[in-house]
Amino acid sequence: MSKPIYKQQEELARVIQHYSEHEGLNETAIPSLFFIRRSTVTGPKHTVYKPSLCIIVQGAKDVWLAEERFRYSPADYLVSSLDLPVTSQVVEASSDAPYLALNLVFTPEQVLDVLRDSEIQGRQKKNAKRGIYVSPTELAMLDAVIRLVRLLDKPKDISILAPLYIKEILYRVHEGEHGGMLEQIALEGSATYRIRDVIERIVSSYNQTFRIEELAEIGKMSVASLHRHFKEVTAMSPIQFQKQLRLQEARRLLLSESTDAADVAFQVGYESPSQFSREYSRMFGFPPREDVKRLRAMTHSN
After folding, report:
1. pLDDT tens for each residue of 62-120
2. If we measure between CA atoms, which residue out of 189, 295, 201, 203 comes closest to residue 249?
3. The 3-state secondary structure of 166-191, one letter per residue
4. Rounded Cα–Cα distance for residues 102 and 84 (Å)
5. CA diameter of the chain
């Protein structure tokens, strides 16, 4: 890592420390910008990544998309270009050197705005690619990120300057090693764009039963093409994708409400409580009741 990049990351670390009032996710005055601080390594966390840029300035993290692992650290950054159910785990952190990271959420419309103001509109619509990638950290992108986070010290400037800096950051991401993957979510007619429509349907109706032919129609492709492109983007089939969403939501409901596991199973779309229990145990390692009891005990001990 070059000395200029190291200096920029030091400044980012100071800002993240200053504005992170508690462990975990911290909101900032910039609506799409979040800071994360962890003083210990964590167990696997199941969540849905929104389209976002994730930069670590201290520590390291593993992210799994299905069975595929992505590890990133201050030497690189991670981009999620679509809503994707993942498992993440902080693997390097301590009280002396906490895990420090920032997350910048963006929309396909913001990416399209970057493309409109560049010479990228005419590029060929490529085949679908994986919806998550890791790329080497670059000086120009970090420079724009630093200007963005400095706005937290000048709140009156945020509404005017933050959109400009975010646009520059997305441009720098696009110009990076794997940036061509990012543009595909915004280019109407590309395979990734059409898979994005299918993902949006599954996410919004995760607890409903659907026919694969209906999803193929939404994606304007054949059933065979849907399976191929969907797996290329998400590393899983549409049914596996929906299952992860259902089980993540079930776990959230069980933790936040005094609800019976069978009732939760029906809420998230399962017709068989026994099937729900089997699939829950397969994903989280414990049956629903035991898992919730364990997680609550861990929370109370922290």
Report:
1. 999 999 999 999 999 999 999 999 999 999 999 999 999 999 999 999 999 998 887 65
2. 203
3. HHHHHHHHHCCCCHHHHHCCCCCCCH
4. 18
5. 58
Q: What is the per-residue pLDDT across 146-181, written as a single tens digit (0 to 9) for each?
A: 999 999 999 999 999 999 999 999 999 999 888 888
Task: Give 301's pLDDT tier (boundaries 50, 70, 90).
Answer: low
Facing residues of 69 across strands?
Answer: 64
Each residue's pLDDT tens digit, 173-183: 999 888 888 88
Task: Please state, in angstroms and rounded to a whole number, the distance separating the CA atoms of residues 278 and 287.
Answer: 7
Alpha-carbon gap, residue 23 to 98, rounded angstroms:
10
183-223 pLDDT, tens digit per residue, is 888 888 888 999 999 999 999 999 999 999 999 999 999 99
Radius of gyration from C-alpha coordinates of the chain: 20
Cα–Cα distances in angstroms (integers) from residue 115 to residues 99, 123, 225, in the given order: 33, 10, 27
What domains lie within the chain, and their CATH numbers? Answer: 3-183 (2.60.120.10), 191-239 (1.10.10.60), 246-301 (1.10.10.60)
Measured CA angle at 35 (ends 34, 38), to 5 deg: 140
Question: What DSSP character marks residue 61?
Answer: E
* Nearest Cα to Cα of residue 261 among 278, 244, 243: 278
Residue with tokens 């159910």: 85
Three-state secondary-structure class, residue 76: strand
Report the distance separating Cα 46 and Cα 87, nearest Å: 4
Per-residue pLDDT tens over the stretch 14-53 = 999 999 999 999 999 999 999 999 999 999 999 999 999 9
Cβ burial, residue 27 (10 Å; 0-12/13-18/19+) = exposed
